[in-house]
């Protein structure tokens, strides 16, 4: 009996150890390039470890049962007539309930830190945002009053391209340029069918819906070029509907901005 | 309570065709209808599988080079629609439900045999129509979700045929659901209490409630969508002031419960298979019943977790996160109970057992990714990516389809009186299990790293992992060969099984194999302990 208990404790510790080791050492996610990304990855790591413990534990239980309790050739008759065990059943109702509840509260916390529970706000001087009905997205803001320095971009999506309108420079670009470490606020609307704006390195996604503007705010943290991917089936060329977001140092961004601003005025 | 069926009025043997011809007739025998559902479903499974192979061939290279892009979208739309509406839903509900439920309640047939036959005969024409729409102007190409405005702007004929076909299949599903509820509640033999029913009856009762409550919503939605397409109304057309997100709410109000319509019957079937081959009573009967009903109730209030990126307000995101995650509790109870059923048994390691254990392992994996996907912040990154594709294939293929195969190995002797070949069966299991995991496990990584779903072309950095996935799909395609060989040879030349080869205690085994037309020669037996293993020898 004691030996059995030791085996059980040993197996459970082994499952936990393996799960934690994999959880901390195997990286399944792309680079982290926005404020949201490390927060997301923290949640991912927790869920990954809990998931591994349950999965490895259940798999071992099933495979062990198949070996240990397999019917030998000389055996006849049935197994034990065990129809249930109330204590055990209550235990495996309550423990998963607690785990699920804790995960829910934790992910609420993560979502709040990502800005998901903030009231949405968008400062576009060009638009009458008071009367407009704004649909939810993620608002990466610490408070409702967005500073004037914020970069506001209007995104329009159509089959099969994204266009980025910089109202302050009065020009439209097919590439999204943003300065690093600055809040970007995007108001997005679709010209035809539903599209979605997804940057895997930022861990954010928002559908772009015809007839209903959506908001997406984010703060890039790493200089580089990342793909913008349409994630909602939008027609035959859906797979090719991609653009790039170029995160650059503020001076580089300003050079790019001024260059484009001029050329637009000349037209 | 039981209505005894007068042989003069129903199922008159002299009026019904005999032999294999009866499977092509408007038969009223629930067993014939069950087999009709199963074989018809399996043929569509082969069609849907061929489409899946075409998708995996296209995705073996990063360029869109195997088929035209619009054809690719038609293929993925038909693959999803066929697999859901013509294979999984009709087979786990219609096929096994029709075959087993009258036995389990001790009846001679379903409550409404004619409605039952109508429900089946709606399926082949709507399925053929769906496949034939490819040759008209191109099949529907807006995905099985048919989100407007895409479904309004793509070629109309294909989309309208798709809507008509899904409406007919939904009608068939509702007829079936009503029939199951009536049969389980009203046709039980005298003396048989609800809490003595085999677990599959409870699963079918829960499933049928979901079917009856949610399918009409889908029907209404699709009728409105068809008005938008043919009559230029503006329910979901933003150009005319319609709201595209409302469609998504209505669609998922059916289509999330549809997941439970696909897995709850499988939960029931595995609860019948495990006790027989483990020679132990089903562990925790009462908690199993309550967890099924818990899943039914919760399953109706989780639909918006498909819409976390659609522009839903924060409170709604939060509510649906918690509700969805809590489904893991009743589902978890069932899995712990099944493992406890195995524990301490005398387990025969055969094909039915292996597929059931494969189901447990695959479904636990899919369930874990499901709880992760329920969390809004997690979902926002992976929504509409290959992570989701991998997740739901772990649920519907690794879960339900594994159980369909397990059930075929388990009940084949019942239906035919012949045994299936165990060596071929185990070979089938091994190839399916390896192929399935090779195909879908790598797709989690693809989704996390930036590959959206429903694309014909992708970033070349994902090529290697996609090729592994396609290799897995090839193995899955190959795995049907030993299965089909096994079926065809065993029907003719298989070993005679006798009436009850597994020494099972559930009522369907207490008659001859194959059973007579009205199930029992005499009165239906009263089975008070369908899982009383271990007791018969100790008495």
Concise summary:
The complex is a heterodimer of chains A (267) and B (539). Chain A is α/β, with parallel strands linked by helices. In chain A, 39% of the residues lie in helices and 22% in strands.
Low-confidence parts of chain A: 122-136, 140-148
Tell me the span between the first and last alpha carbons of chain B: 32 Å
Number of H/I helices of chain B: 17
N to C succession of SSEs of chain A: HHHEEEEEEEEEEEH
| Number of helices in the DSSP assignment of chain A | 4
Reported by name, the CATH topology of the largest domain in chain A is Immunoglobulin-like
Largest sheet of chain A: 6 strands, mixed
Q: How many separate domains make up the residues of chain B?
A: 1
Compute the number of strand runs of chain B. 0
How many domain modules of chain A? 2
Percentage of β-strand residues of chain B: under 5%
- Please give the oligomerization state of what you see: heterodimer
- Largest interchain contact: A-B, 80 and 100 residues
In CATH, what is the class of chain B?
Mainly Alpha
Task: Please state how the strands of the largest beta sheet of chain A are arranged side by side.
Answer: 1-9-6-2-3-4
* CATH-scheme architecture of the largest domain in chain A: Sandwich
Q: What's the gyration radius of chain A in Å?
A: 26 Å
Describe this structure in words.
The complex is a heterodimer of chains A (267) and B (539). With 267 residues, chain A is α/β, with parallel strands linked by helices. In chain A, 39% of the residues lie in helices and 22% in strands. Chain A has helices at residues 2-25, 36-68, 86-114, 250-266, and strands at residues 135-138, 151-158, 161-166, 171-173, 176-179, 184-190, 195-199, 204-208, 214-218, 224-229, 242-248. The longest helix of chain A has 33 residues, at 36-68. In chain B, helix 1 packs antiparallel against helix 16 (463-493). Chain B has a single domain (27-538), classed as Cytochrome C Oxidase, Chain A, CATH 1.20.210. Chain B is built from 17 helices and no strands. Helix content of chain B is 66%, strand content 0%. Chain B is mostly helical and 539 residues long. At the A-B interface, helix 2, helix 3, strand 1 and strand 8 of A face helix 2, helix 8, helix 9, helix 10 and helix 11 of B.
